[in-house]
Amino acid sequence: MYSGLRASLRLNTRPALPRPRHRYSLTTMGYTAGSEKTYRSLAISEKDDDRDIRQKYRPFILEEDSGAEGCWVNDLELTTVLDMAEKDLRNTNQRLKVLVLYGSLRKRSYSRLVAYEASRILFRLGCDVRVFDPEGLPVKNDREHNHPKVQELRELSVWSDGHVWVSPEQHGNLTAVFKNQIDWIPLSTGSVRPTQGRTLAIAQVCGGSQSFNAVNSLRILGRWMRMFTIPNQSSIPKAYTHFPDEGQPGDQRLMPSGNRDRLVDCMEEFVKYTILMRPHLDLFADRYSEREERRIKEKKAANGATSSTN
């Protein structure tokens, strides 16, 4: 009886599968695993920056950011992504262009504070970061397409290589302030597509316990806007507890936590994806249906020209 059972077990025992061997590693791709603790930054210096751009779109820059002391972002070990960004900047002579949107008009807006923290990380990684202020943007309508704030938002999206979206969660979803910004960005304006092919990082702040409703909605929006949303995401519960009380030193800075680390992860991942994908945007945007549509239009135009000459 037992010998038969042992034989059956031997017959049904499958050989162990070989452990997967990664074809690519940091070493084979020309990078080293992060270990450096010394301060290194690719940020645009005040001397090299456009004064008007810096004043209007970089409110996240603090006086302490002029040096390595006093800012937690400067202490982050980001060796690999810094190497990638430095190599990309050297090869292309173009910084990654990032548009940051947030979803609140409150005086002390936690989505804005988190957006600023994300911007500081991206800025250190060499990105040309521009934060759009939604104050004054009209509610979406069919009459104000030429409104200065509408044109500003659309031009920033066309300019960008990627977006970072940070929204509060209100009533289980993203806020009207945030959605209004997306509604003003068209899928296409003639042959220009303001969002297609851009990379996207998403984050939300919660007034209560952690939730993912807003980031789920942001991910859906990104897909509909034909953007490549990174796999990672950030959701900060009880956001007011992650900052010092208003009026206290550092009241606009995230305190150490796993949630802050996750935000760093997202920005690091976003930069890596954008560096890898930016050279291939035209390839990703090449679609059969659109080629066919152009072919039909060109054929009709050619037939019309032939008819007019006969």
Pick out the low-confidence regions.
none
User: How many structural domains does the protein architecture include?
Assistant: 1
Overall shape: globular
**What is the count of DSSP helices, taking H or I runs of 4+ residues?**
10
CATH C-level name: Alpha Beta
State mean pLDDT (0 to 100 scale). Answer: 89
Helix content bin: 40-55%
Number of strands: 7
Q: What is the CATH topology descriptor?
A: Rossmann fold
Percentage of β-strand residues: 5-15%
Structural class: alpha/beta
Q: What is the fourth-level CATH superfamily?
A: Flavodoxin domain
**N- to C-terminal separation?**
96 Å
Oligomer type: single chain
- Along the chain, the helix and strand elements come as HHHEHEHEEHEHEEHHH
Rg computed from alpha carbons, rounded to a whole number of angstroms = 24 Å
Characterization of the model:
The structure is a single chain. With 310 residues, this protein is of the alpha/beta class. The chain has one domain: Flavodoxin domain (Rossmann fold, 3-Layer(aba) Sandwich). Helices cover 40% and strands 11% of the residues. The chain is built from ten helices and seven strands. Strands 1, 2, 3, 4, 5, 6 and 7 form a seven-stranded mixed beta sheet that branches. Helix 7 (213-224) links the parallel strand 5 (199-205) and strand 6. Helix 3 packs parallel to helix 8. The longest helix is centred in the last third of the chain and has 22 residues, at 288-309. The chain is globular.
Name the descriptors.
seven-stranded mixed β-sheet; Rossmann fold; NADP; 40% helix; flavoprotein; nucleotide binding; single chain; nucleotide-binding; 310 residues; oxidoreductase activity, acting on NAD(P)H, quinone or similar compound as acceptor; alpha/beta
